[in-house]
Amino acid sequence: MRAFTSQPRDSVAALGETRLIESIRRWLGSASPPAPFGIGDDCAVLPANRRRQLVTTDPVIHGRHFDDSVPARAVGAKLLKRNLSDLAAMGARPTAAVVSLALDRRVSVRWLEQFHRGLAAAARRFSVPIVGGDVSQSDGFLGAFLTLFGEAAGPRIVLRSGARAGDWIYVTGTLGGSLLGHHWRFIPRLAEGEWLARRVEVRALMDVSDGLAKDLLALTPQGTRPAIAPAAVPISAAARRRARDTGRTPLHHALADGEDYELAVVVGRRAGRAAFERAWRRRFPRLRLTCLGRFVSTDKIPAGSVDLSRFKGYEHLR
Amino acid sequence: MRAFTSQPRDSVAALGETRLIESIRRWLGSASPPAPFGIGDDCAVLPANRRRQLVTTDPVIHGRHFDDSVPARAVGAKLLKRNLSDLAAMGARPTAAVVSLALDRRVSVRWLEQFHRGLAAAARRFSVPIVGGDVSQSDGFLGAFLTLFGEAAGPRIVLRSGARAGDWIYVTGTLGGSLLGHHWRFIPRLAEGEWLARRVEVRALMDVSDGLAKDLLALTPQGTRPAIAPAAVPISAAARRRARDTGRTPLHHALADGEDYELAVVVGRRAGRAAFERAWRRRFPRLRLTCLGRFVSTDKIPAGSVDLSRFKGYEHLR
């Protein structure tokens, strides 16, 4: 469905602000609680909560994170899911979200309805009330900016900074080729993140959103580099399909495409890896967990390791 | 200062994402705590807090909420201050903020530095750590979307929905003509909102951001209308100056311009108004508090009252 309409009567400008906000409340339905716990006052009020709170923010922008080939409902779901992936990456679960819209006056009301119905369906699926938001006018631009709150799901949250030399590097699922559909079809790894945060073996965690080659830099302890054998990388079928069209290698797509929304996991070097892997398979029998290698001293990288610096990953400003 | 540069080497695209994020951390300085309580992990972590949490979100968009005539530092400050005004309107105080940027590649790095230095100065002044954010690329668009968290400052928060027939309507400061500079020079009424929320006389509260004529609708109890004598409206000097240029009346500008960022206050009909007004003058001797009139039954509006439906207020989608 096209996000911009050439028919002025089908546009958000024809609907007007007041009726648009009423429509958004209707489209969100039970995903949006009544004021003051939802839309309708100067601020939304969140219930008191004794756990540590987490917050993350990510948008979807037309022409950047989606285009007219992606169903509008899927765009709404993607907006929430990409933020959920950030919570999953710390072992947290969601508590509430707010959405700020920037709408060109020619944005299609039908598109916006489907967008909100997709957002609402994802919000119900993952139990996230949409508690507030804002609508602003923009010229030639369509974007939705979501801020998501969460709380630690268990006794601890897992940071990116816990890895040490010798620790093992794992990744969930398969990587690459997300442009062929995974970038909006993915399911955020919330259950996996929560489980991983409860395992003492796990020292650090992050989600893979800009490509593993780029994202692993954030986990790598000083004085080390990831030693990864090319054959260890779990390459997706989509990465292989992409490679046929682009002339690049499937490995390149797996490491540099981005929008995998998988979890990169660091397991302590002295941990019982076999027990950890068995426990994973029992709990998540259908999701692959692959050991890629480990962090080793910069001067001890084995010959034949992947040179991650050759892959640039997703660059947000080009 | 111009927000967009024609010199590619001065643009955010030339700086690149990684160095831009480093720069933002430097520009924010002490306004941005280290990870995990600030920028640098998948989510920001907020300290545990037993009070009820509040959340609000408002952006600044180039060509909409500011243009090149507004100093870049003032734009950054305005972004935070307009959200603070929403917290003030419930008697709350800020605890943390996240900022999501959508940047055209031609946005000037110098402009962005000044924007962040202005944001950081306001964040320090109002004690709001900037704990996280996001940078996305956009085409032909520059916007910054802030989400602000707060907590009740006292034993209660004040909603918009508390007014009843017969209650009195007050407003702080003077109204209208914000385009002449008030829209970015204003000071959010945080101390006033906190004080008002502690007064038992106060039944409802909101901030005046779209013009009093439009915003009062949200406070008006069913079956009533605001009965306001034209002479009671505190018209700003800027509204009078604007009227000379536009041919409209100063009253029109006072009621319909928007971006006043003053507080509209509803005081119970049986409250001791004289004591309330005296207490206000003692606490805020330099800020005017004006009684505009009261909410009366729709069939008992006195002749000569302002017909608010004649004034449209700020419409966000035109």
Question: Can you give a write-up of this model?
Answer:
2 copies of one chain form a homodimer. With 318 residues, chain A is α+β, with helices and mostly antiparallel strands. Chain A folds into 2 domains: 8-152, PurM-like, N-terminal domain (60s Ribosomal Protein L30, Chain: A, 2-Layer Sandwich), CATH 3.30.1330; 168-310, PurM-like C-terminal domain (Phosphoribosyl-aminoimidazole Synthetase, Chain A, domain 2). Helices cover 30% and strands 24% of the residues of chain A. In chain A, the strands form 2 sheets. Chain A has a 5-stranded antiparallel β-sheet. In chain A, strand 3 (92-103), helix 4 and strand 4 form a beta-alpha-beta unit. The model of chain A has no long low-confidence stretch (mean pLDDT 95). Chains A and B meet through helix 1, strand 1, strand 2, strand 3 and strand 4 of A and helix 1, strand 1, strand 2, strand 3 and strand 4 of B.
